[in-house]
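Interim report to the steering committee. The following record documents the input for Lipoprotein (305 residues).
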Amino acid sequence: MKRVLSMILLLPLAACHSLRPTAVAPAPAAAGVPDGLYDNHEQVWRAAGDAAALAPPRLRLQVRSYKGGWQTWRIEPEGGAPATWLMQVAATADGGQQMTPYRARVAAPKLDPAPDPNEWTALDACRLSPERPSQSGARLAADAAACATIAPGIGAAIAFLPIAVTRADEGIQLRVYADQARGPDAQAQVRRVHWYGGWAAVNGAGPQASADNRDWHMNRQLRLGNEGGRSALNWRDGTPSGWSLGLERLTFREGGTPVLKLSIIDDADGRVLAYAWADPRAERIGINLGWIQVGLERETKETSR
């Protein structure tokens, strides 16, 4: 009985060591994940067409880097509250990388011009380390059992705490704490979002517009992400026209070829009225139906905002 009591008393002590308010920063390494917005739109779309597949949640990951090996990871589930983590990327002894997540100690931690580590608590028990230490760049994962010991003290945000990360060609494979309930292989395949900007012109007569009708309503400065981006089109007075643009990268089962798809969507019922395809790396994509015209161009580092 004394032994059992001793073990119970030791558990909170172990958790305290895993939830330290500040830390001595190890040698910083290059950022583990490139800055930008990531989205698993295609993974969710693909699962919706497979009755046997367990539909993954739609997630968006926003990564921002700071000096000293720090990053903020903002994970936002569709329709849910976002969770923001401060991640410290550091070199391991064999030249690999490890990532230590921190949770905020204050309601609104400062992020500009840089986060203050004193406003965050390190979650050492959930540190992501190389599963194969000899291989730099291998999958980083937390010890699930160790991480579970501090989970109750983190609150609802624990559901979206990263516990495994694998760099992929165009994004990352991200496993969050809640994925454990969906199975041992459950993870979000989030891909880097590329932005397209441009314009659309909608004729006031809609699809029934005659060729000589010049009542064009311009939508300028449009901006859509290629991973399920959507933008409503308005009349010149700012009221909704009833149509939207959709932009998404998809891979159809029939041909297995990835495409960039630009769609005209009826807002009333979500029907796709027309679409155009282009190569996923296309610099430009557009469509002309007579009554509606669209032109989009891929943003570069110089033009991105």
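DSSP finds three helices and 20 strands in the chain. The committee is asked to note this result when reviewing the revised timeline.
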